């Protein structure tokens, strides 16, 4: 695989509805880099837990399911895949049942330890093969890659995030209302920011980017400017 234009790791953290996933994929694709959606990995484990009939708050049971789940996460920004035991679960992990259960599952310390190790292995391989990777989640700059070349923490008003999430769900054929989504956004924010292990928070050296009034193109432009400013974009010169 030929090296792209990005050199190093761009870590994008922040709560849901900030445009993080769409911007991360687009940024990676535009720079010929790899892309890792760590949230999809936690959602996949949550789906496995629910299918196994295990209580999401049962830490030991959740950990056992996570170890046996056979999770694989692709890093192609044009076609990001999430599989369990070789079966694509990309659509299933976005359902409301998984959304409601993912916070307690992702708070289990042994699950985070397992997935962080997996994520670091994917990142190391991507850096060797493509030269750069855009990684998005909730603890990338603070835990997964604390030495990332660029850390960005995306924020947005809760109401704006709820509207985006509800639209995404509706566009994907999932029933959603803004009020119900707003309640879910606030619930997950509170849970994720107060959990004992890897709470949702910006890294001390992260650049904060408020996307409340930005569309995808505006968010991407801001991220590309930060990449350029850090000198992380290397454009090959033809000869």
From TrEMBL:
A family per Pfam: Cytidylate_kin
Single GO MF descriptor: CMP kinase activity
Keywords carried by this UniProt record: ATP-binding, Cytoplasm, Kinase, Nucleotide-binding, Transferase
Substrates-to-products reaction catalysed: dCMP + ATP = dCDP + ADP; CMP + ATP = CDP + ADP
Keyword Transferase: yes
Family that this chain belongs to: Belongs to the cytidylate kinase family. Type 1 subfamily.
GO BP, sorted A to Z: pyrimidine nucleotide metabolic process
UniProt key word Ribonucleoprotein: no
Domain Cytidylate kinase: 10-228
Organism: Saccharothrix australiensis
Region (Disordered), start-end ranges: 1-21
Name the record gives this protein: Cytidylate kinase
Main location, first listed in the record: cytoplasm
Superkingdom of the organism of origin: Bacteria
HAMAP family: Cytidyl_kinase_type1
């Amino acid at each position: 695989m030929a090296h792209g234009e990005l050199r190093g790791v761009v870590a994008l953290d922040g709560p849901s509805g900030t445009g993080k996933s769409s911007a991360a994929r687009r940024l990676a694709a535009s720079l010929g880099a790899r892309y890792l959606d760590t949230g999809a990995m936690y959602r996949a484990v949550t789906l496995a837990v629910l299918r196994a009939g295990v209580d999401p708050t049962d830490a030991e049971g959740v950990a056992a399911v996570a170890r046996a789940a056979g999770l694989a996460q692709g890093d192609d920004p044009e076609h990001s895949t999430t599989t369990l035991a070789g079966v694509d679960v990309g659509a299933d992990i976005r359902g409301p049942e998984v959304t409601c259960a993912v916070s307690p599952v992702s708070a289990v310390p042994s699950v985070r330890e397992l997935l962080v190790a997996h994520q670091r292995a994917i990142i190391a391989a991507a850096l060797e093969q493509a030269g750069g990777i855009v990684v998005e989640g909730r603890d990338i700059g603070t835990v997964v890659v604390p030495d990332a070349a660029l850390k960005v923490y995306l924020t947005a008003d809760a109401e704006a995030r709820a509207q985006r999430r509800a639209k995404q769900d509706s566009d994907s054929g999932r029933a959603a209302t803004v009020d119900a989504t707003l309640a879910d956004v606030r619930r997950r924010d509170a849970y994720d920011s107060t959990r004992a292990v890897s709470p949702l928070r910006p890294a001390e050296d992260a650049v904060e980017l408020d996307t409340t009034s930005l569309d995808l193109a505006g968010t991407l432009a801001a991220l590309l400017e930060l990449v350029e400013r850090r000198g992380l974009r290397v454009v090959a010169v033809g000869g």
